[in-house]
Amino acid sequence: MSTPEPRRLVVRGCDVLEVPAEGECTVVSGKDIHITGNLITSIVPTGRPVPRAAEILDGTGLLATPGLVNGHTHSPMVLFRGAAEDVPVHDWFNKRVWPMESNLTAQDVHHGALLACAEMISSGVTTFVDHYFFPEQIAEAVASTGIRANIAPTFFSSQGPAALAETVAFAEHWHGGAGGRVTVSLGPHAPYTVDDADLTTLAVHARRLGIGLHLHASENLAQTESSMARRGITPIEVLERTGILDAGVMIAHGCGIIPQDYAMLADHADRVAVTSCPKVYLKHALWPLTPIRDLLDLGVTVAAGTDGAAGHNTLDVWEALRLVAMTQKLETRDAMFLSVSDTLRLAMRGGAAAARLPPGAGALEPGQLADIVLVDLSGLHHRPLHDPRAALVYGVQTNDVKSVVVDGRVLMRDRKLLTVDVPGLLAEIDARTGRLVDTSSGASVQFYDP
Ligand SMILES: [Zn+2]
């Protein structure tokens, strides 16, 4: 029996955003992007012959960009969008989010993850770095929608050793699943909810499996100060002592990372990433922000993320990267910091590295994964178009995303989602909302006291 021919796709007649490893991003006009299977094979001037069997995606008048990466989220938390507003972080966890999460069933998480995948595909996100309960349900949503994800099953030490074993079993079963679109990281929630022995055990498993870890650490300065007062060491030092840094880790937020952490992070810079999600810091009135300039100087990978939609309201990574640029300019009092090119590179190449995609991912180049977004910059809010790169960072709206390709497959064409039954999904979501926000039982998944 002969093996079937790999799928061929040509994105025809588009402009292409080039995102080099350093220097200015550029836009080149009039290209065809040839894709075989899940990889970009060539990018050539448009008008040359196209293989007869190839599917054509018309890119005329559109800008092809690398797919966005949501560097840290909790995808099913779209179910709690707008249900925890105008509260400080303690109340956000203890009075709203952790009580609401005790209502979740596996089916709730499945439908929440589907909604999140649909929202992300429709806004140009091709990969997300997730951390949540019922990870099998998320993996199945990723498998069916065609998006790409690195999924960490959330673990608290209070759940006990059987739950730890389950998270390891999830990794053993799902890492490399859905044709390689699902990868797994181990997901201790944070150093304040997972004890050192469990952190050490999870780091050993991660090294054994050749996967990374994903956790919250030094989320804000109060957590760092509390760790110093209780234990005499910072949360980053906890990660160092327990082998988490050595195994390789994606740290969410890191706003409480302080200069005494820098040498430890520099020593592990080839395997540590930090994702900044500024909208949630702004909403919770948390300061300082992720020290992105210092982290980049240390050689640490930095990405942009939304965190869960219970805090961020959307899973819009254009908004997230825009807020990263704007808040960092203010934080550093330097309008030159995080230029348009550096911001696109952080979100695209940095995001891909944070998601542990293959080296060089996050750029449209031959040999790279065919994760491509076609953006329409012809709207009134972009005219006249002096600089399409600036339009992407500071002006683009999610509806400007017209078509999306993940792993060589078209998932949205001219704003129509091809892998999600949107009306059916919304009916499932609407049927669940009242029960999910009812906190009258008094139950909660955890208590926030870092
Ligand atoms: Zn988070």
What keyword list fits this structure?
450 residues, alpha/beta, Urease, subunit C, domain 1, TIM Barrel, 2 domains, nine-stranded mixed sheet, five-stranded parallel sheet, 22% strand, binds zinc ion
CATH class of the largest domain: Alpha Beta
Mind telling me which CATH architecture of the largest domain this is?
Alpha-Beta Barrel
Overall, the morphology is: globular
Main sheet makeup: 9 strands, mixed
CATH superfamily of the largest domain: Metal-dependent hydrolases
Q: On the 0-100 scale, what is the average pLDDT?
A: 97
Low-confidence stretches: none
CATH topology term of the largest domain: TIM Barrel
Number of discrete helical segments: 17
Strand content bin: 15-25%
- Terminal Cα span: 60 Å
Structural class: alpha/beta
Count of β-strands: 18
Count of distinct structural domains = 2
Radius of gyration: 21 Å
List each distinct ligand once: zinc ion
Describe, in plain words, how this protein is organized in 3D.
The chain is an alpha/beta fold. It folds into two domains: 8-66 and 362-417, Urease, subunit C, domain 1 (Roll); 68-354, TIM Barrel (Alpha-Beta Barrel). 37% of the residues lie in helices and 22% in strands. The chain is built from 17 helices and 18 strands. Strands 1, 2, 3, 4, 5, 15, 16, 17 and 18 form a nine-stranded mixed sheet that branches. It starts with 7 loop residues before the first strand and ends in a 14-residue tail after the last helix. Zinc ion (ZN) is lined by residues 72, 74, 216, 252, 307.
